[in-house]
Write a structure and sequence with these properties.
5-stranded mixed sheet; 12 strands; rod-shaped; alpha+beta
Length: 356
């Protein structure tokens, strides 16, 4: 009987030890979790089984935690998958999606030289894209080679393009311009008058009035002299060209104007018309052409812009006396110094006007 009790006690102790070992290997549970374990067998087990608790272990063999892996995966998916963000289809699908800024969408027909660009915007001048068959250039605005209307820039196209170095434009009537740089108009008056012009001030006023009446800009002075003053003293002297109102160059600047020879005679009035020849008996002041029809202009100015003498209708205040004339048909020295004629102040004549 005593032997049986001893065997039973030995068997129970061995079973408890075996059970404890099984629990640790299979799930990491401590022996304290098994409430039915024999206290004597627990005391006999010297293994520190409590170190396997997952809440306290820093063993990395179990891999990354569920929380870290889930967060990383979710962020990556939502940023790259269009189906989860509601992103629109790309421009070129043939559907105009105005809510995303599209103005047009011709699908495969979209192109940077087409009416609907590759960015699904309607082609317009100034967008930096050249529309085939419509625009000749498009630099996104004015440039040295392209005007703002998307046409090639060149002097004389009627559009002032400062990027191309233009200071003025040839085809803008009323603004003196030569080679698209500032110039000065010169004309012969359309109206005639005897020598009583009201002095130099009156003659200047006639020039200004006729210029403004024709739509010309600027300040104008008469090419006339008195004994004490003349164009060489009164006029602005620089290298701006003198031109007719149609753009024809008369002289490249003051120096050429006063050199004794012009590039072209001053043959147009302020309106751009050719003046009529004046019928008069000129005596010794003759010029090739129909008898008694002459192209005379009051002057009394030498080719260099200085005063000739006092043959100037009493300084352009009287219609009696002798006057010195030039010829508006001539480009040589005679344009300003042709001849003098007794009683010439009584002959209705024209005079020159120069923009300053």
């Amino acid at each position: 009987m005593q032997r049986m009790e001893g065997l039973r006690g030995t068997s129970l102790a061995a079973f408890a030890a075996l059970a404890s070992a099984c629990f640790v290997d299979s799930g990491g549970l401590t022996t304290s979790d098994a409430g039915t374990t024999d206290p004597s067998s627990a005391a006999a087990d010297s293994s520190p089984t409590t170190s396997t608790d997952p809440s306290t272990t820093d063993d990395t063999s179990a891999g990354p935690t569920t929380t870290d892996e889930t967060t990383t995966t979710t962020t990556s998916d939502s940023d790259t998958d269009p189906s989860t963000t509601g992103a629109p289809e790309l421009c070129g699908d043939g559907v105009v999606q105005r809510e995303y800024g599209e103005e047009c969408d011709d699908g495969l027909e979209n192109a940077d030289d087409a009416l609907c660009t590759s960015r699904c915007q309607v082609a317009t001048c100034g967008d930096g894209l050249v529309l085939a068959g419509v625009e000749e250039c498009d630099d996104g605005g004015e440039s040295a080679r392209c005007d703002v209307d998307c046409s090639p820039a060149y002097c004389g196209d009627g559009q002032l393009n400062q990027s191309a170095g233009e200071s003025c434009e040839l085809n803008v009537f009323g603004v003196a311009c030569s080679a698209c740089v500032p110039a000065r108009y010169v004309f012969v008056t359309s109206l005639t008058s005897k020598g009583d012009l009201g002095g130099l001030a009156g003659a200047d006023a006639r020039c200004q009035s006729m210029a403004e009446g024709a739509g010309l800009t600027g300040t104008y002075l008469a090419w006339l002299s008195t004994k004490y003053t003349d164009p060489a003293e009164r006029f602005t002297q620089d290298d701006r060209p003198f031109i007719l109102v149609d753009g024809t160059v008369v002289a490249s600047g003051w120096d050429e104007l006063t050199s004794g020879a012009l590039q072209h005679a001053i043959t147009l009035t302020e309106t751009g018309a050719t003046p009529e020849l004046i019928q008069a008996v000129w005596g010794s002041c003759d010029y090739p052409g129909p008898t008694n029809y002459r192209a005379a202009v009051f002057s009394a100015v030498a080719y260099n812009g200085e005063s000739l003498n006092d043959l100037n209708c009493s300084e352009w205040t009287k219609s009696i006396g002798e006057a010195i004339f030039g010829v508006w048909l001539d480009a040589a020295m005679q344009w300003t110094t042709w001849c003098s004629m007794p009683e010439g102040c009584n002959i209705p004549s024209r005079h020159y006007c120069f923009q300053q």
